Amino acid sequence: MKDEKIEEKFRKFGLEFSYLDSIKLSEIDIEKSLHNQARIAEPINKDRLQIFITLLPHNEFPPIIVIKNSNKYNVGDGNHRVVGARDLNWTEYPYGAYVIKGTDIQIEKFINLANADHGLPIDLEERIAKAVYMVTKYGMTEKDAALLFGAPEHRVSGRVVAQRVTERANELGIENIDILSNTAKQALFRLKPATLFIKTTNVAIERKMPFVDLQNLTRKIENAPSEEVALRIIEDEKDTAKKIKANTLSNKTKAIPMFRKIERIHRAANNTFIPNNMRLLSGKLVKKAYEKLDEIIDLIEICKAAR
Question: How many angstroms separate the CA atoms of 56 and 93, rounded?
Fold first, then answer.
């Protein structure tokens, strides 16, 4: 059945449209429709799908919205209804379909807002990802994309930067770039010379550097009076990384026998018969042992961070 409210939205987005009383499922590219970018993490929610399978035969539903693509249609809005009809072994969706035409960006905007309007709500991470998609694919400004999806503009800007750093690293053959967090990647963005970018990124990956440390390093490199000095700063950082790694191995070696001693003291204090006057002494030893244990744990945490 035609829906004046839906048609008004088409006009608002500048879309052309036509109406079909029903649409054959064989004319719909269902698999491609499930990846129309409306929902990144989970195109079909199983619980919601089951509700549609139960209700579709007994209720009239709104028309779906499709886009003509060569010989088939892609679903812009109504994936759960279409998949529900397929799982019911129907040959068509009987409640009508709107076919829309427009520019890619007009259609993309409409599809996402239509799903947000009456579909399952998308969480913040998906909204950020959608905004980034509009910036990188369609050239929408970060401000407009953030506004469109209700995402914080600074988060969208940061994610766009991180994505561009990832793409640059892949182009330059740098491996394991995703070891770094998105915020850490942002610190690398301002390093324009390829040599500095490659060397700094490799050091950051080797050390699994957090954002603050990497930001401090990139600032030193940026402020270096020449590329030669900048390269020396990077080499010094590599030497520091090697020393930390060597200390890590040394501390681990020391920690293992200490743990074994503590275990023996603990067993002696708790599981063995000891005269009362000796039990007090044993308790004091256990206390000292646990104090040492805290020191060792701190060392191990430092080692983990440095790996």
Answer: 10
Task: List pLDDT tens digits, range 81-96.
Answer: 999 999 999 999 999 9
Please say whether the beta carbons of 94 and 18 come within 8 A: no
Which amino acid, 296? I
Tokens 């018969």, residue?
Answer: 273
Separation CA 37–CA 107 (nearest Å) = 11
Write out the two tokens for 187: 């610190």
The span from the CA of 256 to the CA of 265, in Å, is 15
Cα dihedral 134/137/140/143 (nearest 10): 50
The encoded tokens of residue 138 equal: 């369609």
Whole-structure pTM value: 0.55
Return the residue matching tokens 């400004």: 141
Neighbour count for residue 307 (Cβ, 10 Å)? 11
**Nearest Cα to Cα of residue 136 among 167, 95, 113, 110:** 167
